Amino acid sequence: xxxxxxxxxxxxxxxxxxxxxxxxxxxxxxxxxxxxxxxxxxxxxxxxxxxxxxxxxxxxxxxxxxxxxxxxxxxxxxxxxxxxxxxxxxxxxxxxxxxxxxxxxxxxxxxxxxxxxxxxxxxxxxxxxxxxxxxxxxxxxx
Length: 142
Prior knowledge:
The protein is α/β, with parallel strands linked by helices and 142 residues long. The chain has a single domain (8-136), classed as Nucleoside Triphosphate Pyrophosphohydrolase (Alpha-Beta Complex). 22% of the residues lie in helices and 39% in strands. The chain has a 5-stranded mixed beta sheet with strand order 4-1-6-5-8, with helices on both faces. It has a 3-stranded antiparallel beta sheet with strand order 3-2-7. Helix 2 (106-112) runs antiparallel to helix 3.
């Protein structure tokens, strides 16, 4: 008997500061720079999971402003919901999953992140009311 492929859902926060910079984390497991976020637990909704992941990875309490994009990693079957957010309270710090955090400019994002993650940030920065919908292979956007 074969098992049908399954999808998983992840969430990510593009946290934008007043000066237009965005918060990024360097993941401990692969040393890649990404927006904070992760896989939803089976029993939680997207906004609860978003808040949990951001708090775990950055120490920040955030408030989502808008769903800015939906992205599917085709080989892995992961659907990512990306939200533009702002900080409610806290000071950024690394966590058990993030070795460091940094406020990045748009140019820094494009230099440090793979295309599949940088586009999520730039889509959130350029958000004009309609979420982006894209597919990718884990590195490059189709």
